[in-house]
Structures are given as structure tokens and as C-alpha cells.
Amino acid sequence: GGVDEKSAELAKEIYQSFVDGNIYLTDATTAEMVKLMENTFRDVNIALANEFAKVCEEIGVNVWEAIELANKHPRVNILKPGPGVGGHCISIDPWFIVEKSKNAKLIKAARELNDKMPEYVYNLILREVERIENPKIAILGVTYKGNVDDTRESPAKKIVSLLSKKFVVKCYDPHAKVFDYELCSLETCVENADCMVVLADHNEFRNFDEDDIKYIYSKMRTKKIIDTKNILNHSLWKKYDFD
């Protein structure tokens, strides 16, 4: 997008020196709207997946299985639910549209739903530990998505903030370098923990093998897991009496 046709053409020449794909010209406002629309599309569709997750939890349906089967339809591609939306784009850009237009009602509703997912996860955790005296919560993954070190707008921040007001909470993330709360080793995180909560789909968690599970089993006090990303080998963890 350019402020006028000439500036757009000049920008195109620069980009063509290192970009292999097609370059399309438009005005600056349209280009900015395109960027916002791309991220808002993702946000709205994640909100739909998250709402499906809440409905399925309410009626006793495995949302992951339901989504997998629904996506076998050639024109359906439901995204994956999770603990919320983070990062500096998808969780921010829709608000620019909402601020500018009174017609952005669906966009606003989706953004609010995704913003409330950390609180929903928090309540799931409360339910799991309500009968445990002085429970300790182990958080695995604090970045806003898997295999990155970026914690900007991460849902983990709000979840840990809410939990820390009531419980001992320890956080482990093999990628994150900076976080609002102290990061520790896996051993310290799961030592005497009562509920392990997976908030980021890092490959390190996805690839936990039987030896890893045995190790975590030996460390935790109560064997409860909340896998918000559905990346663990659930049958293998259940073999070791994890709930």
C-alpha cells in the first residue's frame, strides 16, 4: 500500500529485489485493512473453536474428536481450541477494527470470548484441585504458541496471575527467556505438584516418552493433568494412572 500510486510502485520495486511471491498494489488504508482482516479471520475462527470446546465440555463430548470428524467435510476447517490467544498481532489487531466501526459486533464478541479463555482454564484447574489441601500447580509452557520464545500477550500470564493468588505455582518453559513470573526447571516445576497444566504445544512436551512420564510420575504428588493443547499421548499417560 502506498500513499499514492508512485510511492506504491517504488515500494514494489524495492520488495521485488528480495521477494519471490506476487506483489499486489493498493492504497495504504486498504493494505492496512487487509492485514487486520487476516489476523481477525484467525481470531474469529479460534473463538468458534473455543466456544465449541466450552459447549462440548458442558455436554460431555470430546471436542478434539468432534473437530477431527467435522473437518473431514471438504468445506470445513475448524481450528484448534486452546487457553486463549496471544502474540502481538491476532490478539491486538481486531480491536483496531472494533474501535473504528460500530458494525464490528461479531469481531468484538470473538475477541471478548478469546480474552476470557484464561479465566475459563483457571476454573477448570480449580475444579481439579478443589479436594486437595494446599495444592501446587505445575505450568508447562508460557509462550503464546508452540516452539517460540515470545510471551507477548500470552494467555499463560493471566492464568498464572489468577492461580498465584490462591496456590503455589511453578512455571517451566524450554523456550521462553523472559516472563512475568519466575521460570524454573522441569524438576522444580513438577516436584510435589498436584496438577500439571500444558499451555503451549512445544515439541518437547509433545515428544515426552515413557521414561519422561515415569520421571514426572515419581515427582508429582497428585497425578492430574490438564492438556489445553491436546498434544500429550493420553493413553500412555493414563497407563501411569494420570487423570
List the strand order in the largest sheet.
2-1-3-4
The tally of beta strands, per DSSP, is: 4
Uncertain regions: pLDDT < 50 for 5+ in a row?
A: none
Helix and strand element order: HHHHHHEHEHEHHEH
**How many helices?**
11
* Structural class by helix and strand composition: alpha/beta
Give your account of this protein's structure.
There is one protein chain. With 243 residues, the protein is of the alpha/beta class. Helices cover 49% and strands 7% of the residues. The chain is built from eleven helices and four strands; from the N terminus they run ααααααβαβαβααβα. The chain has helices spanning 5-16, 28-59, 63-70, 93-100, 105-115, 117-129, 155-164, 186-190, 203-206, 210-219, 234-239, and strands at residues 136-140, 168-172, 195-198, 224-227. Strands 2-1-3-4 form a four-stranded parallel β-sheet. Strand 1, helix 7 (155-164) and strand 2 form a beta-alpha-beta unit. Helix 2 crosses helix 4, helix 2 crosses helix 5 and helix 4 packs antiparallel against helix 5. The radius of gyration is 21 Å and the shape is elongated. The termini are far apart.
